Automatic annotation (TrEMBL):
PANTHER family: 3-OXOACYL-[ACYL-CARRIER-PROTEIN] SYNTHASE, MITOCHONDRIAL, POLYKETIDE SYNTHASE-RELATED
The EC number(s) this enzyme carries: 2.3.1.179
Lineage per the UniProt record: Bacteria, Pseudomonadati, Bacteroidota, Cytophagia, Cytophagales
Protein name in the entry: 3-oxoacyl-[acyl-carrier-protein] synthase 2
Active site, per annotation: C165
Organism field: Mongoliitalea lutea
Function: Involved in the type II fatty acid elongation cycle. Catalyzes the elongation of a wide range of acyl-ACP by the addition of two carbons from malonyl-ACP to an acyl acceptor. Can efficiently catalyze the conversion of palmitoleoyl-ACP (cis-hexadec-9-enoyl-ACP) to cis-vaccenoyl-ACP (cis-octadec-11-enoyl-ACP), an essential step in the thermal regulation of fatty acid composition.
InterPro entries per record: 3-oxoacyl-ACP_synth-2 (IPR017568), Beta-ketoacyl_synthase (IPR000794), Ketoacyl_synth_AS (IPR018201), Ketoacyl_synth_C (IPR014031), Ketoacyl_synth_N (IPR014030), PKS_Beta-ketoAc_synthase_dom (IPR020841), Thiolase-like (IPR016039)
Record bears the keyword Acyltransferase: yes
Amino acid sequence: MNLRRVVVTGLGALTPIGNTVEEFWNGLSNGVSGAGPITKFDASLFKTQFACEVKNFDVEKYLDKKEARKLDLFSQYALAAAQQAVEDSGIDTEKIDLNRAGVILGSGIGGLKTLEDEVINFTTGDGTPRYNPFFIPKMIVDICAGHISIKYGFKGPNFVTVSACASSTNAILDAFNYIRWNKADVFITGGSEAVVTTSCIGGFNAMKALSQRNDSPETASRPFDKERDGFVLGEGAACIILEEYEHAVARGAKIYAEMVGGAMTADAHHITAPHPDGDGASNVMRLAIEDAGLKPEDIDYVNVHGTSTPLGDVAEVKAIQKVFGEHAYKLNISSTKSMTGHLLGAAGAVEALASILSVKNDLVPPTINHSTPDENIDSNLNLTLNKAHQRTVRAALSNTFGFGGHNCSVIFKKIEE
């Protein structure tokens, strides 16, 4: 098959460290933590009382106030990031074939707050079933892509991928494949999540998955550090405009990077724990590099899943060493979750965006909050600890791994005319 080239022509971000792409990148470059005490509900009785929340989000910049009430926050976030990306791309919807323009987003959970609110309203009422008529369309996970499609009139493929924390990386890879297989020309892709809620914090606390460093939230997400005690929950959205290369050139679009490959695998091991030797993770990276037509030596930066969990960080490092061999010591490796927290289904989109900007700007964001080496992690690896690293980034690989053993990796590289 004659595969078409796919490029990135627009970006949008709404994150715990910035509500625009520029703010997000400045936060990453300067090692800013987005963690702080939870403000969305009273978390005083929970073991974990902090998260990486989106701050100062003004929905009326993107939506009419009346219309916003019909949407769960995760859809509001998605529409905001999509609008930024479309505006950044300069796409004129009157000058493209809307039948060949689609929307594929990822979300791991969707409208959890809506579900919580409706259940609470029923159980605390007089027993009469009174439900909001928008309950179902606010809650269902696919609806964020539907709203974006309706807003821009994109009539091509339209769906949401669900693979836990790998969801939005799967979405980006699906969009990439549709374009290179000549099934579409343009996609709005990425992911959104808004689950800083009582049930989400409570559920992850019950699993003992979250950090409980309540006395110092800003240092709680500490991938690779010996004192790490779990991940920090995050929220937000990121959207990317993927476009066929000739289509982008014909309309004079600016191009951030070229997407060149990706892959998906399964651990087939455990519902929440990674394979201890990183087998699924090593397989997905190897296959992504092969799919891109590259060699391991062509990758300069790996944006790791790096959640700050005891098992996950070690397994991923083992996988990197297995795939890259001696070149692993020439790579920059970093976890931007140390700053943004873990955005669950939106993590892959935010981290793909970070990888694209790293390629564009030749800067590797840091892994912050590292103070104590872990004897189970090779100290000779360049984990980009605590400070960003300026270097040429020819190609960046971004990993995301989800509960259920879902693994997905994508690769972006500098554009070659």
